[in-house]
Amino acid sequence: MGGRRLRRRLHGNTAEHLLEIAKALANEGLLKLEGEFARATDALISHAGQFEDKMKTALEALHAKHAFERG
Q1: Residue 18: which domain range?
Q2: Is the pLDDT of residue 25 over 70?
Q3: Terminal CA-to-CA distance of the chain, rounded, Å?
């Protein structure tokens, strides 16, 4: 599931809907659900570097936008 699509689905949703999303991620092997709790699997953790790179790129773009807006 793409990051933007997931963020759009998470915003403003009920707990029940978030549980549905968590179950979908669990079916993909990215989460392990245990009652009301979830933990990341090794499959999800293995993507940590990609998440960090995307976060860094987004943060740099945000800083550049703010610098441009300040003139």
Answers
A1: 3-70
A2: yes
A3: 37
pLDDT digits (tens, 9 = 90+) for 43-70: 999 999 999 999 999 999 999 999 999 9
Structural domain count, the chain: 1
In the 8-state DSSP scheme, what is residue 41? -
Which residues in 31-55 are b (16+ Cβ under 10 Å) and which e? beeeeeebeeeeebeeeeeeeeeee
Cα angle 49-52-50, degrees, rounded to a multiple of 5: 40
d(CA 57, CA 63): 10
Residue showing tokens 């003139």:
71
Is pTM beyond 0.85 here?
A: no
Q: Which of 58, 54, 21, 26 is nearest to 40 (CA)?
A: 26
